[in-house]
Amino acid sequence: MRGDPRIDCNRLAYGIARRAAELVGPEPELQATVAATVAALPEAPASANVRLQIGGREVQITLRDTSEDRLIARLEVVLARFPQETPSPHGQDLCPIHHVPMRDNHKNGHTWKSHRTADGWCKGR
Q1: Integer distance in angstroms from the first to the last C-alpha of the chain?
Q2: What is the Cα–Cα distance from 13 to 19, expressed in whole angstroms?
Q3: Pseudo-torsion of CA 58, 62, 71, 47, nearest 10°?
Q4: Centroid of chain to Cα 99
Q5: Long-range contacts of 2-9 (CB under 8 A, 24+ apart)
Q6: What pLDDT was estimated at residue 1?
Q7: What is residue 47's three-state secondary structure?
Q8: pLDDT tens, position by position, for the chain (125 residues)?
Q9: Measured distance CA(71)–CA(5) in Å, rounded
Q10: DSSP string, 51-89
Q11: Which strands form 120-122's sheet, in the order they lie side by side?
């Protein structure tokens, strides 16, 4: 099981900086700068990741903030800027209420689309 990706990124950044310091040589100023940089990157108390289609490409955006309320407000702005249509799986029609695939039903010469819910059947109306 993977850990927190932010911690993995910090470890990776630290490892890259440490290796760069080793390649450059034992310069105490550089090593002190690397240590200070790593120490100055505290964990964000609130973060969110979202994958979006922008210009036909899938992009992952990470938002971090010290306030969950501000983070949610920023996330709402991002999501409103890039509205995403719900794709129909394999060309199926989706229920406009529940956003799940509708299936064709046939009985006594009639055809209709519906799907099962916890309360019974929904015809998307």
Answers
A1: 43
A2: 10
A3: 130
A4: 20
A5: 6/43, 6/44, 6/47, 7/43
A6: 41
A7: strand
A8: 455 555 566 777 878 877 877 777 666 676 677 677 766 667 788 999 998 888 778 889 999 998 999 999 999 999 999 886 655 555 568 888 888 888 888 889 989 899 988 888 998 88
A9: 18
A10: EEEETTEEEEEEEEES-HHHHHHHHHHHHHHS----PPG
A11: 103-107, 110-117, 120-122
* 3-class DSSP state of 94: strand
What SS3 class is residue 12? helix
Spatial separation of the C-alpha atoms in residues 46 and 9, rounded to whole Å: 16
- The whole-angstrom distance between residue 94's C-alpha and the CA centroid of its chain comes to 23
| 63 in Cβ contact with 75 (< 8 Å) | yes
CA–CA separation, 75 and 57 (whole Å): 19
